[in-house]
């Protein structure tokens, strides 16, 4: 009897410890990650020679393995937003100067930086009312190769984030 109870206990231990709950589905090579949580923030800022960077502090520290993606609203085309991933391609001006938007992040914040030799000489289209979207995604999602990370719409669609779920942030 004692052996039967031990055997039953061992069986139950094996049964419960070997169960894996995985709500990720793979259908026809399309990966759907049902447990990925993404956070998206939108902010508007101005740059100047005195302030060529802006810092956004996350409401809560992100997870160490999270990846931060940043996009800049480059233009509007027929009423549709055109989002450009950072870092941007280098913009070359006729006077020989260049411009690039880039970013870096920690677990607590992200810095968006405008690099230019003479920011005061830049047109307001490059410095004023610049709109950025910051998307925080788990590393598994970023490394999955199933989503084009250079396309903000693809990222938001895969994360099932719509415009109503984007937190508009004021840096004032």
- Overall shape: it is globular
The H/E string reads HEEEEEEEEEHEHHE
How many domains? The number is 1
What's the assembly state of these chains?
A: single chain
**Total number of helices:** 4
Report the mean per-residue pLDDT as an integer.
Answer: 81
Q: Major sheet: size, sense and barrel closure? A: 5 strands, mixed
**How many angstroms separate the termini?**
73 Å
Helix content: 10-25%
| Beta strand count | 11
Provide the low-confidence segments as ranges: 5-35
Bin the strand percentage. Answer: 35-45%
For the largest sheet, list the strands in their spatial order: 6-5-10-3-11
Organism: Aquimarina hainanensis
Protein name: Collagen-like protein
Signal peptide: 1-22
Keywords: Signal
Q: Could you walk me through the main structural features you see in this protein, from its secondary elements to its overall organization?
A:
- The protein is an alpha+beta fold and 172 residues long.
- It has one domain (35-169).
- It is 19% helix and 37% strand.
- It has 4 helices and 11 strands.
- The chain has helices spanning 2-17, 124-127, 139-142, 152-159; strands at 25-27, 30-32, 39-45, 53-57, 67-77, 80-85, 91-92, 98-105, 109-116, 130-137, 167-169.
- It has a 5-stranded mixed sheet.
- A hairpin with a 2-residue loop joins strand 5 (67-77) and strand 6 (80-85).
- The longest helix has 16 residues, at 2-17.
- Residues 5-35 have low confidence and may be disordered.
